[in-house]
């Protein structure tokens, strides 16, 4: 019988056990998103019993920042600090992953200095202001930001990359009928609502080569007229076909945000 303490091999990467520390925001980065000694200490102290640590959500672009001292991965100047973090986790025998995110409509101009963007001009659960509906140019630019962020994660030495598609953030906003009211190729039917997150996955998969790819899936909005488990099952099949190795299941659009 397989137990939590048994090793696991995925895409040639061997986890010493099946215990995972999921991504949890700490607010221990600098205001520019840089790694701090305090942040590294936080993760080192949690390396003892786990096989995988998924470092908290890091913003892929300035406009996608969610909170004041969120970890960043939006610029090459952050790679050195991220490298230190990955190295300290890995030297303790733990697989190191990092989660990449864009807050979309859950961001705020108070934090980023710019108006939030989202699939539609709909205030999302947990949002504080009405976002601008993303143009096709915005869509391309954000996809490129995810791609570049993933390349930085690889350069920093992380073993795996997780794309954040849950908790009411941008990719979840596209998938959810509550927050996606678009009338073009990126909204309406489930197939169209899946288009943006699947394109992000495709670009990240290509960018990271043979590295492990995880996807944090918000499988159920837990709200009336929201995304359902049945829809998410269909989405998960497409994630697997595009090369996602591990689906990290969560749920809820999450209507709260940190105090600013």
Automatic annotation (TrEMBL):
Any Pfam family = Oxidored_FMN
Q: Is Endoplasmic reticulum one of the keywords?
A: no
One GO molecular function term? FMN binding
CDD domains per the UniProt record, alphabetical: OYE_like_FMN_family
- Extract the InterPro entries matched here: Aldolase_TIM (IPR013785), OxRdtase_FMN_N (IPR001155), YqjM-like (IPR044152)
Query: Which chain regions cross the lipid bilayer?
Result: none
Q: Please list the cofactors this protein needs.
A: FMN
Q: What keywords does the record list, in alphabetical order? A: Flavoprotein, FMN, NADP, Oxidoreductase
Identify the domain of life: Archaea
Q: Which residues form the NADH:flavin oxidoreductase/NADH oxidase N-terminal domain?
A: 4-250
Q: Protein name, please?
A: NADH:flavin oxidoreductase
| The organism of origin for this protein | Thermoproteota archaeon
